[in-house]
Amino acid sequence: MVDEELHFLLIQCYNYNNRLLARKTTAAGLHLLSGQPKILECLWEADGSTPGDLSRHCALDKSTITSLVSKMEEQGLVFRRAHSADRRSVRIFLTERGRKLAAAVKQVGYAVDECALQDLSPEEQRTLIALLGRVRRAFEEEM
Predict the structure, then answer these.
(1) Which of 2, 49, 61, 75 is deepest in the core (most CB within 10 A)?
(2) pTM (2 d.p.)
(3) Residue 49 banded pLDDT, cuts 50, 70, 90
């Protein structure tokens, strides 16, 4: 049955996760485009990332990152600065407004995580996260 196939379950979880994140983000008054919450969370943890870093970490194409970052720059959420070691490259930083929004996005993410993990014991939660990390690494190696 399709409901027992990993690829199908991953797609379903991905779609439910995205819809719940979007609903909770909107309910919290955070008016963001799809993909922007991921970038905010990545920069929250690694401010000053390059577009390539964000592309890898968010699993988005570089062109998508460039488009989203440009829009976020217009919204006053991020700014770009030339990379100190390579002037052809840029690093992306959160503005104060972006930092506040990123903190709010993190809280929404925690609420979605709580929903997803509510029926699992703490040990099952740790196991699931570890296993998904291994699955992600296997995908990364194929890309």
Answers:
(1) 49
(2) 0.85
(3) very high
Non-local CB neighbours of 53 within 8 Å, separated by 6+ positions: 42, 46
Number of other CB atoms surrounding residue 49 within 10 Å: 21
Structure tokens that stand for 116 in this block: 């997803």
Q: Please name the amino acid found at residue 112.
A: V
Q: Residue 48 half-sphere exposure, CB side, CA atoms within 13 Å? A: 4
Rounding to the nearest 10 degrees, give the CA dihedral for residues 20, 24, 29, 30.
Answer: -60
Assess contact for 129 and 34: CB atoms under 8 A.
no
Contact 21, 108 (CB under 8 A): yes
Of residues 68, 95, 71, the one with CA closest to residue 81: 95
Residue with tokens 């699993």: 59
